[in-house]
Amino acid sequence: MLDQPRSLDLAEQAAGGKLRILIVSDAWEPQVNGVVRTMRTVLHELRKMGHVAEVIGPDRFVTVPLPSYPSIRLALKPRRRLNAMLQAFAPNALHISTEGPLGWAARAWALRVGMPFTTAFHTRFPEYLRARTGAPVRFSYAVLRRFHRPAQGTLVAAESLRRELVTRGFRNIRSWSRGVDIDLFRPEPHRSDGPERPLSVYVGRIAVEKNIRAFLDMDLPGTKMVVGDGPQLASLRRDYPKVVFVGERHGAALASAYAQADLFVFPSLTDTFGLVLLEALACGTPVAAFPVTGPIDLLTGHPEVGATDWNLRRACLAALGCNRSACRSFAERFSWRACAEAFLRNLAVVPARPPIAQTELEKRS
């Protein structure tokens, strides 16, 4: 058994207490989603602080496509190879980011060797599964409770989600907010040669659980634009010929898509935060959403930057009157460095032990 875990004191860190941090995630590059963006950015910040930090994702294994979503690939029988990688890296702190094959295999290894770990609740898999198959959420939540129960802490991005999970029987829930790259995502002048205004934009995965039809079915003035890719793209293009579909965008092109919009519409009912909300606000674009986890946590008490309403059209019309400068100022409060420091504070840390050898992970970092 390993020594008992302790929390990392940031003063100790500043004095030179650098860590070997290993993150195991079934969501990793080349996937494009909020989990990947969060973990990639936190990884970058941890390394800037001087920690040895690495992610083990499906890209290191033989994979199979997720049924109905072939762009997401899952590791196939990863346990033996993953065990060797975990043992060789010899982490001070282990974070299991997702509840997929890699997450379950890392959990089994940690329990076997007595390694404490933290987890995160990034995705409402029960609701996603119900949307795709009709499976009752109570069974899926029972599986997730089992997965997270041994963790020293389960990290969540929104206070409303923390409260909900507590009522569902989850324990050791810890808050871990998000950040935004305010240098990349920033306001820019609206082009005069664009589509008819106002321009209302959705950015994200094009999938049934994102509830995009609630946006596209609304009677709104101007033009609707959808940025992203996913299994529902072909059917939405067929059903909504007047909507502008531009596919995936990244980097400066993505930031420009937000900044050129007059309104960002977030129709999802199942997200656990919604990084896209902060990205839109950083570009000066107000947001409209249903009053659910994520939007209510960000927007409650801040009518100057967006609106939530069960009548999404009413929220959209209200948000169109928001102040774009106020949106930018609001987003500037959220930094990725603060997000990474909160992640560090929540880790379960054990004393250092030398790695077995220079690992494949470090060779590739």
Produce the secondary structure layout.
Layout: H1 10-14, E1 20-24, H2 34-48, E2 52-56, E3 63-66, E4 69-75, H3 79-89, E5 93-96, H4 101-113, E6 117-120, H5 125-133, H6 137-148, E7 153-156, H7 159-167, E8 173-175, E9 199-203, H8 213-216, E10 223-227, H9 233-239, E11 244-247, H10 251-259, E12 263-266, H11 275-282, E13 287-289, H12 295-299, E14 306-308, H13 312-319, H14 324-331, H15 336-346, H16 360-364
Parallel strand pairs: 1-2, 1-5, 5-6, 6-7, 7-8, 9-10, 9-12, 10-11, 12-13, 13-14
Antiparallel strand pairs: 3-4
Helix pairs in contact: 2-15, 3-4, 5-6, 11-14
How does this model look, in words?
With 365 residues, this protein is of the alpha/beta class. The protein folds into two domains: 188 residues, Rossmann fold, CATH 3.40.50; 135 residues, Rossmann fold, CATH 3.40.50.2000. Strands 2-1-5-6-7-8 form a six-stranded parallel beta sheet, sandwiched between helices. Strands 11-10-9-12-13-14 form a six-stranded parallel beta sheet, with helices on both faces. A two-stranded antiparallel ribbon has the order 3-4. The longest helix has 15 residues. The protein is globular, with a radius of gyration of 21 Å. The two termini are 29 Å apart. About 2% of the residues have low confidence.
Q: Proportion of β residues?
A: 15-25%
The main β sheet shows up as:
6 strands, parallel
**Strand arrangement in the largest pleated sheet:** 2-1-5-6-7-8
Q: Can you give the helix content as a percent range? A: 25-40%
Corresponding CATH superfamily of the largest domain: Glycogen Phosphorylase B
Number of H/I helices:
16
Give the overall shape, derived from the CA principal axes.
Answer: globular
Low-confidence stretches: 10-15
CATH topology of the largest domain: Rossmann fold
What's the number of extended β-strand segments? 14
Q: Provide mean pLDDT, rounded.
A: 91
- Distance, first to last CA: 29 Å
How many domains in all?
2
Instruction: Decide which structural class fits the backbone.
Output: alpha/beta
Order of helices and strands: HEHEEEHEHEHHEHEEHEHEHEHEHEHHHH
Q: Quickly name the level 1 CATH class of the largest domain.
A: Alpha Beta
Radius of gyration: 21 Å
CATH architecture of the largest domain: 3-Layer(aba) Sandwich
